[in-house]
Amino acid sequence: MKALTKSGHGWRRTGGALGAALGLVIGLGAAVALPATPAHAQDRCTYGSSSGNTYTCINANSGGADAQATIRHSARSLDVCLTNQWGGVIDCTGYQNVTPGHYLRIGFRGRLQPELYCADTYRSGTEIGHICAASNY
Q1: CATH number of the domain that 104 lies in?
Q2: Mean pLDDT computed over every residue of the chain
């Protein structure tokens, strides 16, 4: 599995056993913009610096972790990343256009190491949302 690292305003792939380092049992999920769904009770969310337009959420539980950004009012091109507590990138959606009432989600399924997992939302290379949740499983 290749790791993603931030380089300037973009991401680049570097060699490494990211999955083994994070203790993942099952591989990463796919990301697509979908109609909004209600947040789960265990989600932690923030509007960050989006002026109430982009709602960034993280959910980390015994079955895996998800990072999600939901657009409320104005369409945006977003990149949503799932990271660990040290800023290590697990996976990103890549920039996609998201219209009001829709979301962009990235995640993985499998056993989590007990640490913090974070959702990071980017617009034009600038972080507009960051929120973390602990996994104690």
Answers
A1: 2.60.40
A2: 76
- How many other C-beta atoms can be found within 10 angstroms of the C-beta atom of residue 89? 17
Chain centroid to CA 24: how far? 16
Is residue 107 within 8 A of residue 66, CB to CB? The reply is: yes
State whether the Cα torsion 135-59-69-98 is positive or negative: positive
pLDDT band at 42 (very low <50, low <70, confident <90, very high): low
| Residue pointed to by tokens 């789960």 | 40
Domains contained in the chain, number: 1
User: Which residues constitute the domain of residue 57?
Assistant: 3-134
Length of the chain: 137
The pLDDT tens digits of the residues spanning 81-113 come to 999 888 899 999 999 999 999 999 999 888 778
